Amino acid sequence: MPSGLKPFVVVALLIVALPLLWVGAAALTEFGNTWTYRYRITLGVSVGGKEHVGSSVIQVRVTQKSAMLPQTQGVSIKVSGEAVVVDLGNHGILFVLLKDVERPQRRAPNSWSASANEITSSAFPRTQEEKGEWGLARTMRRYSQGGQGRELQPDQLPLLVRFRNETAPSTIEQVDPTNLEMSIGPGARLTRATIETVPAGRFPFNISGLTLPRWLTGEPVTRKIKEVLPWLSPDPERRLIPPTGGRMPPYIALTAHGDFIR
Question: By the number of CB atoms within 10 A of the CB, which of 15, 70, 92, 103 ranks highest?
Answer without folding.
Answer: 92
